[in-house]
Amino acid sequence: MEFMPTPNRENLRELLAWWVFLFGVLLWSQWRSKRAAGLPLVYGFAITMMHAIGAAVYCVDGYQPRSPILLQSNYNLACTFTGFYVALIGLASFVFGCLICPVIFPRNRPRLMGYAAPQITTQLPGTLLLISLLFFFLIRPLINRVPSFASIGSAGTYLSVLAITMYIYVAYQSGDRARFAKWLISTTAFPVITVLTMGFAGYGGNAAAAIWAFCLRFYRPRWLGVLAFTLLLYAGMTLYINYMRERISIRESVWGQRDLSSRIQRATNIFSQFELFDIHSQVHLETVDLRMNQNDLVGKAVIYIEGGRVATAEGGTLYAAALALIPRILWPNKPASGGSGSLVSRFTGVNFAAGTSVGVGQVLEFYVNWKLPSVIIGFLVFGLVMTYIDQTAGTYWAQGDLWNAIRWLLPGMGMVQAGGSMAEIVSSVAGNAVFVWGLHRYLFARYYEDLRKPPPPHTLRGSRNLNLERGSRVERPERLGSR
Length: 483
Fold this sequence. Notes:
This protein is mainly α. The protein has 20 helices and 2 strands. It has a two-stranded antiparallel sheet. The model is unreliable at 458-483 (pLDDT under 50).
């Protein structure tokens, strides 16, 4: 690839330093914005876990893959370096898109839709959490069998992330530190639930990390938030390497429909030989390299395409993403877009065993269409759109209208799939949008009073702070987290 530095450990460390710098710029832009809610920060962390962590493994002196599975799959420094170089260009374009959004949309102030009743602030988090639990355990398993309804079922489970976030935010604003700490600690239940019910820790871990990233947006003092987030990252890496050691046993129990006590017993084996994550451990580094190094697949795709072994998609995957907007229930014979695994195999030449979960991710998908130009343009537009959604939600949030903030954040959460295909992202965004539309129309709209009517007695005109006890119309947006 033209202009790419020589693939070696020293140059890889330089690329990693640039990645940290860009993430810092993203964090700074979220902190200084009066309208940000935190979606770009959540996505930035997700893509960092997929690319920067795997690159960091090859920055460790003396590390070389030695396990048979890594050698058989031809994991190496050159592929990781190449893939990380493309990912870095993507992150830079994403951050640039986030930065220019306020310039392109300087007056992104949404219209207040009415005076919110007290329940919108005092009872909203609990209501959302109850709805999300009903969808996760009861409704989703039923409607997943109906064409086009699977994405709506997933929206109900996404809602739990925002419900817990709102619980934490309300506790933080009210100064209740005990309740704030309790709800933060409750995020550890996400990976436990997904391990015991699905056999996967990643889904729950990503949900918990998303909540912490949202909190990093409004928590003060900022240095303490960054320290806590760093410790959380280390704790997550530690839990990951111990989970991977027992993963096969846990999945045999879960997928074999064993009773809950058997699943719990298998899961607790994680702590029987508990090890802290050690960057000098070959086993630990190889565990990370195997499952958290998306750069390897991106690098293989670059080499495969540049070698002329496969033609670029020329927008084919993006066309499939556009078709995802049309529900299959309305178009039963809609062409199958193919899963992430088939896309990866097509453009890397790597075949995966049946049942193996492989995410294509935005870096790889954008590249296989028109190479680097589509990576730059794709991520720039991605950052622009996500920031617009985030700022609209953040303005409602600062005005104290938490439900309308959720109405924008939940569709935006569909974009926070760093390992998903664009077709999956479009489907999730559409499903989440339909879901919140239905919730508002049939449940929450009744709690808003028309602005054309005289304000109710409990309304506090001109109030600038979130009132947790009474409904209010706040005239000017505040910086999230101001106290």
